[in-house]
Amino acid sequence: FGSNLSDGRSAAKRASRxxxxxxxxxxxxxxxxxxxxxxxxxxxxxxxxWYCSNYNTMTGQAAMLAGFAxxxxxxPIPGGELAPHIVLEFLYFVLTxxxxxxxLGVIIISSYLSVWAPSLALRGSxxxxxxxxxxxxxxxxxxxxxxxxxxxxxxxxxxxILQIWIYYRSxxxxxxxxxxxxxxxxxxxxxxxxxxxxxxxxxxxxSGKIEHFQPYEFVxxxxxxxxxxxxxxxxxxxxxxxDYAPVASEALSEFKPKLASSNYAK
Length: 266
Description:
The chain is an all-alpha fold. The protein contains eight helices and no strands.
């Protein structure tokens, strides 16, 4: 009778514990999800690096062009017989200041995005959701920044033509205007041609985001949450139901610019 009672207690203890194979399967499932999520993050990191590289390139070129344009407005305007017409002088300064403004705007926007977007992707408290937000924000502003950058270069060449008409005689300026005009036309033509050949529309772009993993992106920082709710104390007090799985329900509720807002509205 004593032996049967001991066997019954052992069986009850085994029944009260979760099977080892079940725990191992759970760990393997979580490991698979984690590995695939890490692969998605690596792809998105390549997107962040590519966008930041583009912004850094435009920043360097824009700074150089802004310096060239600033030297235009520091030159004294000729007087006497060589004094230019007031309309010509007005257009010259408007175009020169427009070039400086556009290129400084490119520098400021690119600097902000290159600093804060990687910071959000790396240190955001909402994990993968912040990474997606950073990539989408970099994507949203790339076209605007690039068009401002190219517009500054074209306006700079037009201001250079006007500068020739201000500082040189008419017959010399007319002769120089011809090759300058050809250069501006070539810039327009090749910019349009290259854009048509290499530009990808929204329907053609491959995104690094895997939509099927979006439910996992709502899981918050487990380590931080465990310390906040003090799980160790709860378990020590006998609360065996004190499980914790933080859900960042507000992850997609904040403002996202342009395309990012439509991506997170789902």
